[in-house]
What we know:
The complex is a heterodimer of chains A (103) and B (215). Chain A has four helices and no strands. Chain A has 103 residues and is mostly helical.
Amino acid sequence: VDAWIRAEAYRLYTWGTVTTLAGGGDIGPAGSVNKVWWSELDVALHETALGLLGEQANAESRWLDGYIFALSGPIYAGTNEIQRNIVAERLLGLPREPKGVSR
Amino acid sequence: MRFALDDEQVALRDALDKLVAGNREAPDLWKRLDELGVNDLAAEATPVEVVVAFEVLGRHAVPDAVESTAGVRDDAELATLATAAYLLGAGERVLSDTVAYAKQRRQFGREIGSYQAIKHRLADVRIALDFARPLVYGAALDMSPRSVSAAKVGAGDAAYLASRTGLQVHGAIGYTQELELSTWLTTIRELQAAHGTAAFHRRRILDSLLAERAG
């Protein structure tokens, strides 16, 4: 049920994004909000499916392939930790972390 | 499909916001809200307007908002959705208060909001609220029991995450009566249980999905 709720939220959220973009607007750092959501949703959906498959989950299947690929979601296109920094700094306006000292 | 507030809805939101901000404790607030038509919302306004109004009320934690709106009480689904919108507003308020605190409070020589441990938690709240909002507004558009349940669960979870994170980021001062935070915590908890617990609504969603599947 939670997987369904999150997918439904994603569907409706996307309508909002499309409306903004179609109106000539720019979503800016909200893209980072979206990226964290869908990549974690993708993993959660596959985990749910594999959970339902029980012991059969270990056999080759579309769900297993999908799961392995979904695991890369929170990493590629800027890891979700980087995205959270963007959300915190650009949307919430929290102070940037001091730059590391180079040796 | 257009998925944004129209000018009239934005005007309603801004008018309410102006009225409520700073007047939260005013004894005649409900009278003035009544004059603005808030109590007639259920009878005359669209669900979207109810949601817009209650998100504003939630943001300012207008006391007894859900109980006081007589009209909404007649319609169980609309009252549930109004509660979800109120939760959304309350979550937004806790997040914004907490962000303000994290920018101000310094520890180990810098603002605590500059630490990733704090940033990432607050970013997760931003993300949760951003994805709860479409559930609430989407439910206002179709008003199906399933959508309303999803809105209530989504907004409740997001607001609760906001309140837990808010308390943790504030630290011990969040417990004290010097800040209102504790009031928000209990209000959010209370609203989560009001008009159907999360378990009830999850069950309703499951039943509806299964019924659809069975045809």
